[in-house]
Amino acid sequence: MKRARWMIAASMAVWGTLGPFVRRISVSSGELALYRAVLAVAFIAAYLLLTQQPIPFREIRREVPLLLLSGVAMGVNWILLFEAYKYTTVSMATLSYYFAPMIVTAASQVLFREKLTGRQILCFAMATLGLALITGTGGAGQSGTDLTGIALGLGAAVFYASVVLINKRIQRVEGIHRCFLQFLAAIVTLIPYVAATGGVTLTHMDGAGWGCLLVVGLVHTGVAYCMYFSCLREVPGQEAAILSYIDPLVAVVMSVTLLGEPMTVWQAAGGALILGFTLLNELSPGRVS
User: Fold this and answer.
1) Of the ranges 57-61, 174-178, 192-196, which is most confident?
2) How far is the C-alpha of 270 from the C-alpha of 283, rounded, in Å?
């Protein structure tokens, strides 16, 4: 159990460092999403072979359409998030992106007829207030491009929420198998998109860009996803929810300290509201074991 917690925490910390690496890769967001998926598929395929975890295609064939649809949503989600990094700070893009759980909560009421509790309504309202503080306050670094980046981050959150909602319908596919098949679907979607929007431009990258691309594809995606999903079953849901907030916290710290990106007091307060009330929304009223 202790090892599983550390593995999940480590994967979240790795995901929190994604922004600075993406900033250093001089290709389009669509290209980057495609290369990330290709490298991740190669890594996870090797992992599944080494650990002897074959994909049970006969058992999951009825859920393949949902897997394909979620893969498409994942590809679009990556494109929008990478675009958000180009327009605003890593912290603002990440905090906007972490509004996704609130979107899932609101959509579940319509799609799955899950009745909202008073606590969920409070959490949604306070997280929305946090978002308003981020988008509506001025200060250093706040501009039209910042608002564009925040909007792109919210767009990424919508598509990430779509992945989560589709996954609720998928019952027969294991976590790592699910990721592998979703990444394959993302590749199928992204290839024509990249071909139609400029094609391959890898020859223009320098050595540092190539290194960052390999890190994003192999470490941030392949290694981190394998670590996360191989240990997720061993950790209670509430603990996993708490550990997931290492990701945005690391992203914010790196944005402010390593990249020197500005953040006003009101924006910090808005980020705290989003993360705090989103976490509260994911936890049950009982005590975390």
Assistant:
1) 192-196
2) 20
